[in-house]
Design a protein that fits this description.
The protein is α+β, with helices and mostly antiparallel strands. Helix content is 44%, strand content 13%.
């Protein structure tokens, strides 16, 4: 067949098609292979590194007592006795919130601690929302961060996340897309929300609280295993028997099997027994282990060695100083976790509203009041003392300058600030005006 002749039979067409195929080595452009190198923006870690970090953190939490204790500390302080959400100014939203929070498919009270620990362990929390087509109730399910391989976002705004791609399986080699609530492809199906901590500016993925100390946890574990083996060797010893050469053969045969512990041997006067044990100087390594533990503590959530049960060199002043560092970190995490829960409720309500399953107006975070537990109950006594002292100082100020509306406002704000409470501006105005709640009338002096 010459070049000008068109192929006629299917065999000729196959040969003609194969002649145009050019092989490309794997790893070169146009090799036909799809490789996911980034899980988000250029500021994010490569997917393989991020995935390995997820599993390393999970294995450390499962097997390393120090990692388990760090994550447990975060959950115990952040969740505490429980977090409560309210929508006092939106009755219809408050009713939906109560049903959502206690629904058997949600049972949010039981999800608080696992979600908080997952956020600390993986650095991310992916929450899928499934809307019941009958009553509009939204059910929540957390998806492991290790299953979300890639996040698509608006090229003009990396914080506007659009699609979350779950890693492929045998049934779905290309992966499964989860859409954000504002994505056009979401429709009436399930949607996904994404929350992250330890996220650098410009990145879309978070990082585990254990990420900086995973290598040090591994080093400490290996170091401790080595010390256990060496100290086990210290307890081993050899018997050296000194005897004349004429009886050596007899003694070798006699003691071919070493005597068992506790046995009594009547030795010939020519025999001299000497126990030889290795001197490994195990105590000299104590400072090495302490140094590694300090590296683990430094990477924790404001933790100190006293949190790991090591208080030999600690005193009350040290514990208070380290406790303040811990409280500052935990308050920040608690505030973010409270925002996370409130946002889930807002998105659930707006989702049901958009699908026409509930009646009302769109909700915002301003409609939700978050009641957070105390990080440290002993702070209440200090706050009460501070509020009492500022009240006394304000009374002295009134004696000097007299009473005015501006001074009343300042006094209310300062007392509430020193008491550790945040109140709305309209409540401040009601207190200043002396208005009885629900009446709109001032209180006579």
């Amino acid at each position: 067949m010459n070049r000008t002749t068109k192929p006629q039979t299917w065999q000729e067409r196959l040969v003609f098609w194969l002649a145009k195929v050019i092989s490309v080595d794997v790893g070169k452009p146009n090799d036909g292979m799809v490789s996911i190198t980034s899980s988000g923006t250029e500021m994010d870690k490569p997917w393989e590194q991020l995935r390995a970090e997820f599993f390393d953190a999970l294995v450390a939490w499962r097997t390393n007592p120090l990692a388990r204790r760090i994550i447990s500390l975060i959950g115990a302080y952040v969740v505490g006795a429980g977090i409560r959400l309210r929508a006092d100014d939106r009755p219809e939203l408050a009713e939906y919130l109560a049903g959502f929070w206690s629904h058997r498919q949600n049972r949010m009270v039981l999800r608080l601690l696992p979600w908080c620990e997952e956020l600390a362990r993986s650095g991310e929390l992916f929450v899928a929302l499934f809307t019941n087509p009958v009553d509009g109730m939204v059910y929540v399910r957390a998806i492991p961060a290790a299953r979300i391989q890639r996040i698509e976002y608006d090229p003009e705004d990396y914080e506007n996340e659009q699609v979350f791609w779950e890693a492929g399986t045998i049934e779905q080699p290309d992966g499964k897309p989860w859409y954000a609530p504002n994505h056009a492809g979401a429709g009436g199906g399930p949607v996904m929300l994404h929350y992250a901590v330890n996220r650098p500016v410009g990145a879309v993925r978070g990082e585990s609280d254990l990420a900086p100390i995973l290598s040090w946890l591994s080093r400490y574990e290996r170091w401790l295993e080595d010390r256990v083996r060496l100290n086990a060797g210290v307890r081993a010893f050899l018997w050296v028997v000194h005897a004349p050469s004429r009886v050596r053969a007899v003694l070798e045969e006699k003691y071919r099997k070493p005597p068992s512990p506790g046995s009594v041997i009547i030795a010939d006067e020519a025999e001299t027994w000497e126990a030889v044990a290795p001197n490994l100087r195990a105590a000299d390594a104590s400072n090495d282990g302490r140094a590694i533990r300090w590296m683990v503590a430094a990477g924790g959530p404001g933790t100190a060695l006293i949190d790991f049960g090591e208080g030999e060199d600690s005193n009350l002043a040290t514990a208070r100083a380290m406790g303040e560092q811990r409280r500052r970190f935990l308050r920040q995490r608690q505030q973010y976790f409270g925002f996370l829960l409130a946002d889930v409720v807002v998105q659930a309500w707006n989702r049901a509203l958009a699908l026409g399953k509930v009646q009302g107006e769109e909700a915002t975070l301003a409609d939700i009041t978050i009641d957070l537990p105390d990080i440290a109950p002993e702070d209440n006594r200090e706050l009460a003392s501070a509020a009492k002292e500022i009240s006394g100082a304000l009374n002295d100020l009134v004696a000097l300058v007299g009473v005015s509306t501006a001074l009343k406002r300042l006094a209310v704000r300062l007392v509430m600030k020193f008491a550790g409470e945040t109140v709305k501006e309209e409540i401040v105005e009601e207190i200043v005006a002396g208005v009885m709640p629900g009446t709109g009338e001032g209180v006579s002096e």
